[in-house]
Write a structure and sequence with these properties.
The protein has 336 residues and is of the alpha+beta class. It folds into 2 domains: 150 residues, PH-domain like (Roll), CATH 2.30.29; 108 residues, Roll (PH-domain like), CATH 2.30.29. 26% of the residues lie in helices and 31% in strands. It has an 8-stranded mixed β-sheet. The protein has a 4-stranded antiparallel β-sheet with strand order 9-10-11-12, with helices on one face. Strands 13-14 form a two-stranded antiparallel sheet. Helix 1 packs across helix 3.
Length: 336
């Protein structure tokens, strides 16, 4: 450790998505390569000396207590935990707004690191079409969703996480230093052999959320008689800002669902569902909130950008006079 393959792999994965902006401190991390990246992990992030870095990924993340704030993070998986390296502005955003401080004027940028130890990991929920996953710990402070928006990145991280957890499961707990009379006889089984206790006694439950998420989604699609989902993808809706600099636009996270007859845009809650065990009441908003929807038969043309990634698509519809689908819904159900 580290092997040449690992060094090459984390160097290739240490790339910030070009369409998302990060702080200066995270840009510094993205500029590290090979051995410098491993040394940075051990010198600034790792909590244990014999901890090994196994995987690196850049992803947007959501925290359970701030479900509407999506922030960019460098996700580092080690043999001891999952680290989320964030820019310091995310944690101190409220302080900068409430106090007359020089947060924005400061030329010194910090990064904060949130860690979820593997021994505290209780469940991993993978979203539809592997577009995102949620890892859950023992409290509301330990629930994080990674919006990878890419099935390959999700699959790779889950495979690496399973491999690390399997190493923990095979590691026996150390023998107690001071043995008493009861410990000499308490660790024996009926065959006379010693029982090998596992340090990782509470294995995480991996769930692919097909059945957890489909009921509410099917409820929406039943209204439009479109049960066959052809495509589910986490995308961004581009909103051009009027009166600003040229080529300035804001990206609004949306869930795009394509059926055989309609194209829908949803505002989806990626962090609250399925409900954690300690939740005492349902979330304030539903899992899916319809933002827009159009009939495929009204689609006039699709414009594609020339860049490879991220790919920009523009859907042009010819139903300008009938944009309100909810108004048409009452006509379909109750007649004219």
């Amino acid at each position: 450790y580290p092997s040449e393959f690992l060094m090459q792999k984390i160097t290739e994965d240490n790339q910030i998505p070009v369409h998302l902006h990060v702080s200066v401190s995270l840009q510094y991390v993205a500029g590290l390569k090979g051995n410098a990246l491993v040394e940075f992990f051990h010198g600034n992030i790792a909590e244990v000396e014999n901890e090994e870095l196994r995987h690196l990924m850049w992803s947007s993340v959501l925290f359970y207590k701030t479900p509407s704030v999506e922030v960019m993070a460098c996700v580092l998986l080690s043999t001891k935990g999952v680290y989320f390296l964030l820019d310091d502005s995310f944690i101190h955003a409220d302080e900068c707004q409430s106090e007359d401080s020089d947060c924005e004027n400061s030329s010194f940028h910090l990064s904060c690191c949130f860690v979820l130890k593997l021994n505290d990991l209780q469940s991993v929920n993978v979203g539809l079409f592997d577009q995102y996953f949620r890892i859950t710990g023992h409290s509301a402070d330990h629930i994080v969703t990674c919006l990878t928006r890419d099935s390959y990145n999700t699959h790779t991280f889950i495979q690496q996480l399973m491999a690390v957890l399997s190493l923990l499961a095979r590691t026996p707990s150390p023998e107690p230093v001071d043995k008493d009379f009861y410990s000499e006889f308490g660790s024996k089984n009926t065959d006379g052999g010693e029982v090998d206790h596992l340090r990782y006694e509470n294995p995480a439950l991996f769930t692919w959320n097909l059945f957890c998420q489909l009921p509410e989604l099917v409820m929406w699609l039943e209204i439009y008689k479109s049960l066959n989902i052809l495509l589910y993808v986490l995308a961004f809706q581009v909103n051009h800002v009027e009166g600003s600099a040229q080529n300035t636009s804001s990206l609004q996270p949306k869930t795009l669902i394509l059926t055989s007859s309609d194209l829908f845009l949803f505002d989806e809650d990626y962090i609250s569902y399925p409900l954690p065990e300690f939740a005492k009441e349902p979330p304030k908003r539903d899992k899916y909130q319809l933002a827009d929807g159009r009939r495929i038969r009204d689609l006039d043309r699709v414009l594609m950008g020339y860049q490879t990634y991220p790919q920009a698509l523009t859907f042009v519809f010819d139903d300008v006079q009938n944009q309100d689908l909810m108004q048409n819904l009452t006509l379909d159900h109750f007649g004219e």
